[in-house]
């Protein structure tokens, strides 16, 4: 769309029609970026209509010229693609079974994940769920603090719901740190007491999230290694 001319986007996905500023009612915005809440925790937002051919570095540079996004942390960047996928939050239960026909279980990209690794991971989880169910064992969900659990949560329940409890615009997602529950206490200082800033702070946060995920994953594996008969 941007290739058609410099005014195209503000008459399309950035169209400001219907929006008013109560502090300046007579002032009409030039263009508007819509941020859609993408997880229940409110820690991840989607820039609506920003599929693009731009390289990742250019996306970050340009998006940070938008007022209010100068210091934004980008969990993932955009690209052009087409996916065929289920409305999983509405159709699948927590173990990826079709609610209307529980003997069917879905896995991979069609569930609403993106990426080869993510598709394989959801397939692995679905397989483990199927084996446990077949053997009459309890199905143990991976913790939401892990990559597997965070992705599963997005597919089966991490969507944002409308007032009438219906999933709103469920979209496929790569695994990213924006899907993880926030840390109880994010790191703010280095071991020697210096205050973390900028990229150092972001890196420290990601390292803390990763360490928590690995610890919780070990506990999940240990729990799975002790079969318990299903009720």
Describe the structure.
The chain is mainly alpha-helical and 231 residues long. 29% of the residues lie in helices and 6% in strands. It has 5 helices and 4 strands. A hairpin with a 7-residue loop joins strand 1 and strand 2. It is globular. The protein starts with 34 loop residues before the first strand and ends in a 7-residue tail after the last helix. The model has no long low-confidence stretch (mean pLDDT 87).
Gist?
The protein is mainly α and 231 residues long. 29% of the residues lie in helices and 6% in strands.
Give a quick set of tags describing it:
231 residues, mainly alpha, two-stranded antiparallel ribbon, 5 helices, 29% helix, globular
Biggest sheet: strand arrangement? 1-2
Beta-strand level of the residues, as a percent range? 5-15%
Q: What count of helical segments does DSSP give?
A: 5
Ends distance: 55 Å
Major beta sheet summary: 2 strands, antiparallel
Overall 3D shape: globular
- What structural category characterises the helix and strand content? mainly alpha
Number of strands: 4
Helix content: 25-40%
* SSE order, one letter for each helix or strand: EEHHEEHHH
Instruction: Extract low-pLDDT stretches.
Output: none
Mean pLDDT: 87
Radius of gyration over C-alpha positions, nearest whole angstrom: 21 Å
């Amino acid at each position: 769309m941007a290739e058609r001319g410099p005014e195209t986007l503000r008459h399309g996905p950035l169209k400001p029609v219907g929006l008013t500023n109560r502090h300046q009612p007579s002032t009409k915005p030039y263009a508007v970026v819509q941020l859609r809440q993408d997880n229940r925790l409110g820690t991840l937002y989607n820039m609506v209509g920003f599929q693009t051919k731009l390289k990742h570095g250019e996306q970050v540079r340009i998006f940070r010229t938008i007022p209010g996004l100068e210091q934004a942390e980008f969990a993932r960047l955009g690209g052009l693609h087409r996916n065929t996928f289920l409305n999983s939050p509405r159709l699948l239960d927590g173990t990826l079974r079709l609610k209307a026909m529980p003997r069917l279980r879905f896995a991979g990209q069609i569930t609403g994940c993106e990426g080869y690794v993510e598709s394989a991971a959801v397939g692995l989880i679905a397989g483990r769920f199927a084996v446990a169910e077949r053997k009459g064992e309890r199905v143990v969900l991976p913790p939401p603090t892990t990559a597997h659990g965070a992705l599963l949560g997005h597919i089966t329940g991490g969507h944002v719901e409308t007032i009438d409890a219906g999933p709103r615009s469920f979209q496929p997602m790569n695994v990213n740190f924006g899907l993880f529950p926030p840390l109880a206490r994010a790191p703010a200082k280095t071991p020697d007491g210096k205050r973390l800033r900028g990229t150092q702070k972001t890196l420290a946060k990601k390292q803390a999230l990763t360490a928590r995920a690995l610890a919780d994953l070990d506990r999940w594996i240990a729990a799975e290694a002790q079969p318990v008969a299903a009720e």
